[in-house]
Amino acid sequence: MSKEHHRSLSYFRQDALAGRVVLVTGGGSGIGFEIARQCGLHGATGVVLMGRRQSFLDDAVKLLAKDGIKAVASSGDIRKPPDCVAAVQVAVNTFGALDVVVNSAAGNFLAPAEGLSPNGFKTVVDIDLIGVFNMAHSAFEALKKSKFGGVFTSITSTLHYGATWYQVAPVAAKAGIDTMTRNLAMEWGEYGIRCNTIAPGPVEDTPGIEKLSGGMWREMTWPSIPTRRASTKAEIASACIYLCLNENVSGHIMVVDGGDWFGKEPFMPRETVAMVSRGVEKGSRNMGPDSKQHSKL
Questions:
Q1: I need a labelling partner for 278 at 20 to 30 A (CA). Which of 134, 202, 230, 297 fits?
Q2: Would the pLDDT of 175 be above 90?
Q3: Which of 88-97, 218-227, 229-238, 265-274 has the highest mean pLDDT?
Q4: Are residues 165 and 216 in the same domain?
Q5: Both 174 and 79 in a single domain?
Q6: pLDDT tens digits, 207-259
Q7: In this structure, are 260 and 272 located in the same domain?
Q8: Same domain, 181 and 276
């Protein structure tokens, strides 16, 4: 299938999210913007974009308007609880409700552990982990009132499933989000709020992959990924939509990475495996109970 197919593929009806109001942090660019766009294209009544840079948000709102999507901006820093409260209020005041929160804001950079300052570590944890809690705490009352059942989804990663070179801060933060989300799902289920995370691997054409690949991602062939490609932003967005629609999925980590987290390059070519297997099979036949080799043992 073509790359364009994966970038535009939709699995859902265009009115799948009709009536819902969606708030996306980090919604001005990258994965967050595409999540906001896909929610709007699938019928969301309104979309609120939260981010720190007003100019990015204004441009994003204009782009969404071209697709017929009703969107507003709420500039703020998820590390600051009052900014999170303000974003929730923008959603309620503008569109009358808040049904879905998607946490896409994140901080990340490459750094060896011994070269990462305590402040650098704290910055990533504050944006990723503390920011998600701030949004959860701020959105709880509004999500509890959702007539569809509140949905609280966070974008994490697979970095912490093993260990990842030069990513000690994001590894700690994302692991914390996964665990915290499971706890929120347990505690808030009785209020009709479902909490999940989505763990992407490499996602093409994003600030994250640009930074972490040194700008080389377009030339990469991804031999360790079983599907042999990075995900698209639309594929991550489709996972968000699915988690809005399935009313009995909660406390779940949905990995969307083509098998990247467990994939690895083969240690020998298929042709060599066949040759070795035939050799072992032939040798085992020669080692039968009546063979001379067997009697020497």
A1: 297
A2: yes
A3: 88-97
A4: yes
A5: yes
A6: 666 666 666 667 777 888 889 888 899 999 999 999 999 999 999 999 999 99
A7: no
A8: no
Domain count, the chain: 2
12, 46, 63, 139, 144 from 87: Cα distances, Å? 28, 13, 20, 9, 16
Do 162 and 100 lie in a common domain? yes
Do 295 and 222 lie in one domain? The reply is: no
Enumerate long-range contacts of 60-65, CB under 8 Å, 24 or more apart. Answer: 60/27, 60/28, 60/29, 60/33, 60/36, 63/33, 63/37, 64/36, 64/37, 64/40
Taking only the tens place, the pLDDT of each residue in 26-41 is 999 999 999 999 999 9
Average pLDDT across the chain, whole number: 89
Q: What is the CATH number of the domain that holds 99?
A: 3.40.50.720
Kindly state whether residues 83 and 63 are assigned to the same domain.
Answer: yes
Q: Evaluate if residue 89 carries a pLDDT over 90.
A: yes
Same domain, 154 and 97: yes
What per-residue confidence (pLDDT) applies to 11? 86
How many CA atoms lie within 13 Å of 4's alpha carbon, on the beta-carbon side? Answer: 0
Instruction: Tell me the residue range of the domain where 249 lies.
Output: 3-265
